[in-house]
């Protein structure tokens, strides 16, 4: 079956409610739910690229700086994300270590890599496996939030320890950059418009919104 | 060569008007069945779905429309249950500590207050936003639409509620908070006696009912209920 893009028919979709609207003014309000609708998310590639670069830069301090400093009778223990995972393994909590490893280490890294691939191919208007790339996009959209796990676990730990007076736990300098990586990649995913990947197949309409669309209405 | 007659007042007539109205109605009907995929922009016709069915985009596989089995009635039931569990999970303590002075219990709010006192103001703000404010707004949006619909009245501002739910979707993180409590409780196990309390079960119940409520809420189903003419 040959697909026709809505934009090629002069239509655009309201994302929150699904109504089809004329594409004509670049931005217009949905008559049904009142959302501000554009055929493609405005400035999608530029915004996503900026946020991804910011996230990559923040990723370094997030992993190098300690995320938690524990002072107990036996001494001071400084934990980064990775060393925290190793200490969970040392204590024998394998399943938990696996969850934290996936959520806090594997997911952010894979997410940055995936965003990089999506951006690179979309900037180049690549026609390489668009269905797979759309799936990747949906995947990072679903999984990205789970990386907040380590930030929250540390927060809960600090609260419990202050309250229970077990030992002294302090948040490390890595907490904020790590949280910022997660939030920046979430915003990057939100800013990315997967429809741009499919525009590479459309003959006329593309990521550069045709000016003629503006003058129709 | 004679010029074509240019007539400013094209006579439509009663029959023409009826035909025009019929055409508009048919177009409107076609448009409600016409979808552009939100992930790839492919235009396609979506048939009326059976209960419990969902339509996927033929080109990229995105879920275009779902028809949750119970419809708005189920969504309302789940939302009300989630609202109850939300309130209860903040009333009852989540964990307890065995301490020299006796057993002390901690609620979520008290824990967050404890955290906000320290140096972690930004993390506390993020935590309060994603586990208190977002779920509250989501519940408000769900109930403000579903309650009037189920009691036979027209909801006040469906558009605002649906837009709010769309934008809030990624930011509710109670389930992540729950796992975070588990992780830190395990980490503390060796340091002292820490016990779960009923509150943690209520948080689990909230996570399940809330995701069921959000899954049962399909904006397109709501619109077709509110605009039966099209």
If you had to describe this structure to a student in words, what would you say it looks like?
The complex is a heterodimer of chains A (217) and B (230). By secondary structure, chain A is mostly helical. Chain A is 54% helix and 11% strand. Chain A has helices spanning 44-64, 81-90, 94-123, 130-143, 149-164, 175-191, 195-199, 212-216; strands at residues 11-13, 20-22, 28-29, 36-37, 68-72, 75-79, 168-171. In chain A, the strands form 3 sheets. A 3-stranded antiparallel sheet of chain A has the order 6-5-7. A two-stranded antiparallel ribbon of chain A has the order 1-2. A two-stranded antiparallel sheet of chain A has the order 3-4. In chain A, β3 (28-29) and β4 form a beta hairpin. In chain A, α2 packs antiparallel against α3. The two termini of chain A are 31 Å apart. Mean pLDDT of chain A is 87; it is low at 205-217. Chain B has 230 residues and is mostly helical. Chain B is elongated. Classes of the chains: A mainly alpha (217), B mainly alpha (230).
The count of DSSP E runs of length 2 or more, i.e. the number of strands of chain B, is 7
**N-to-C terminal Cα separation of chain A, in Å?**
31 Å
- Specify the oligomeric state: heterodimer
Q: Low-confidence segments of chain A, ≥5 residues, pLDDT <50?
A: 205-217
Structural class, judged by helices and strands of chain A?
mainly alpha
Which term fits the overall shape of chain B?
A: elongated
The helix fraction of chain A, in percent, is 40-55%
Return the structural class of chain B. mainly alpha
Spell out the helices and strands of chain B N to C: HEEEEHEEHHHHEHH
Question: Major sheet of chain B, described briefly?
Answer: 3 strands, antiparallel
Query: How much is the average pLDDT of chain A?
Result: 87
Radius of gyration of chain B: 26 Å
Main β-sheet of chain A: number of strands, strand sense, barrel status?
3 strands, antiparallel
């Amino acid at each position: 079956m040959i697909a026709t893009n809505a934009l090629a028919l002069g239509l655009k979709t309201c994302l929150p409610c699904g109504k089809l609207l004329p594409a004509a003014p670049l931005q217009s309000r949905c008559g049904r739910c009142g959302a501000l609708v554009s055929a493609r998310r405005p400035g999608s590639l530029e915004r996503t690229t900026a946020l991804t670069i910011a996230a990559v830069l923040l990723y370094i301090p997030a992993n190098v700086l300690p995320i938690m400093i524990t002072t107990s009778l036996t001494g001071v223990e400084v934990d980064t994300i990775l060393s925290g995972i190793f200490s969970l393994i040392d204590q024998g909590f394998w399943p938990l270590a696996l969850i934290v490893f996936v959520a806090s280490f594997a997911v952010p890294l894979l997410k940055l890599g995936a965003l990089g691939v999506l951006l690179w191919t979309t900037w180049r208007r690549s026609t390489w496996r668009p269905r797979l790339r759309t799936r990747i996009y949906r995947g990072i959209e679903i999984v990205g939030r789970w990386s907040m796990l380590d930030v929250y676990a540390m927060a809960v730990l600090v609260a419990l320890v202050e309250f229970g007076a077990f030992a002294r736990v302090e948040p490390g300098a890595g907490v904020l950059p790590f949280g910022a990586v997660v939030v920046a990649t979430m915003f990057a995913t939100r800013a990315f418009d997967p429809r741009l990947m499919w525009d590479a197949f459309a003959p006329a309409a593309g990521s550069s919104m045709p000016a003629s669309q503006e003058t129709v209405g | 060569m004679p010029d074509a007659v240019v007539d400013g007042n094209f006579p439509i007539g009663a029959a023409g008007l009826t035909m025009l109205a019929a055409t508009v109605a048919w177009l409107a009907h076609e448009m409600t069945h016409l979808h552009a995929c939100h992930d790839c922009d492919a235009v396609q016709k979506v048939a009326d779905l059976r209960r419990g069915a969902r339509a996927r985009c033929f080109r990229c596989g995105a879920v275009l429309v779902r028809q949750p089995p119970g419809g708005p009635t189920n969504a309302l039931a789940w939302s009300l249950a989630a609202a109850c569990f939300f309130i209860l999970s903040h009333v009852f303590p989540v964990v307890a500590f065995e301490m020299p002075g006796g057993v002390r219990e901690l609620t979520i709010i008290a824990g967050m207050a404890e955290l906000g006192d320290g140096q972690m103001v930004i993390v506390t703000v993020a935590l309060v936003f994603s586990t208190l404010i977002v779920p509250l707004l989501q519940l408000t949006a769900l109930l403000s639409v579903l309650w009037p619909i189920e009691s036979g009245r027209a909801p006040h501002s469906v558009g605002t509620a649906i837009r709010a739910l769309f934008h809030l979707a990624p930011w509710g993180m109670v389930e992540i908070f729950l796992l975070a409590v588990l992780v830190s409780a395990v980490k503390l196990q060796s340091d002292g006696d820490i016990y779960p309390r009923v509150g943690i079960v209520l948080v689990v119940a909230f996570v399940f009912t809330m995701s069921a409520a959000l899954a049962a809420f399909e904006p397109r189903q709501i619109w077709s209920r509110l605009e039966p003419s099209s």
